[in-house]
Amino acid sequence: MIPLHFASLLVCIIFIVPPLLHQERLLPFHVKYSFDWSVSPVYEIMFISHTISLAILVLSVMGVDMLFISVVMSTVMQYRLLQKCLLKYNTSDM
């Protein structure tokens, strides 16, 4: 599960850091707006909104992945318990 957390952190870094390194103003997501978003207060607000939406997106994807992982782990444990019960079936330990 730790590699999944590092992968999600890497996705956030890949999208957020490159716009900060360029001389021109870029947003984390390449979008087109009908207004000039490169002026000073609007750019910062748009950058923060893109960053927050990226964090929500990554957390949502990770949540679904963790849900599937927990369902699979629970299923595996149930099969292991069933295996132990079947091995003890018709023995003196039963």
From TrEMBL:
It holds the Pfam family 7tm_6. It is a multi-pass membrane protein. Keywords: Membrane, Olfaction, Receptor, Sensory transduction, Transducer, Transmembrane, Transmembrane helix. It is found in: Membrane. InterPro entries: 7tm6_olfct_rcpt. The chain crosses the membrane at residues 47-73. Its main location: membrane. GO terms for molecular function: odorant binding; olfactory receptor activity. GO terms for biological process: signal transduction. GO terms for cellular component: membrane. This is Uncharacterized protein.
